[in-house]
Design brief:
Blueprint: H1 5-22, E1 25-29, E2 35-42, E3 48-52, E4 55-61, E5 70-76, E6 80-81, H2 85-92, E7 104-114, E8 119-128, E9 131-142, E10 149-159, E11 172-186
Antiparallel strand pairs: 1-4, 1-11, 2-3, 2-11, 3-6, 4-5, 5-7, 7-8, 8-9, 9-10, 10-11
Amino acid sequence: MVLSPRRLLAGGIALALSVPALAASRWSIDPARTTIGFVIDSTAWPRTQGTFNAFSGRISLDFEHPERSRVDFTVQAASVEVGSNAMNDYLRSEVFFNAARYPAISFASTHVEKLGPRLVHVTGNLTLLGVTRPININVEVDQRKGGERVGFSATGSLSRSAYGMNSGVPIISDTVHITVVTEARQD
């Protein structure tokens, strides 16, 4: 049997259209099971720990080929919480997060690399104060949640001055350590 170019093209298109069914699955971040935290050191007072309480995120997961996975995450800057109303307001002000002008902090992955059975390295773009810079994050994946849920524990750090957040440097450390512990449910 001789295959014409038209049949080859039709077969190729049919094959290409069947691949997404085998590829990545869509997951949504469960806000009730998510903590987005940060830690920053200072020479003037003890370490400050904080969280963000308003966020959303979607994940496209391909367990067979993690490099095809993708994550998008958005945090509302005004949701910052450090345990003091006065300090929360100060962090929301134009001195730090400038939440009125830049209400969202966003992350979009650009590359995912599997490092081990439960560990991946995620590179992506973080946008903070209108500035977008690459950031690297290590993520531990917990697939033991039973198929419909998957857990993640992510850690990374950033230089806040790279985003124009210079207030207090060097008394307040330029390095901010980030942790995200989350669970996602399959859509």
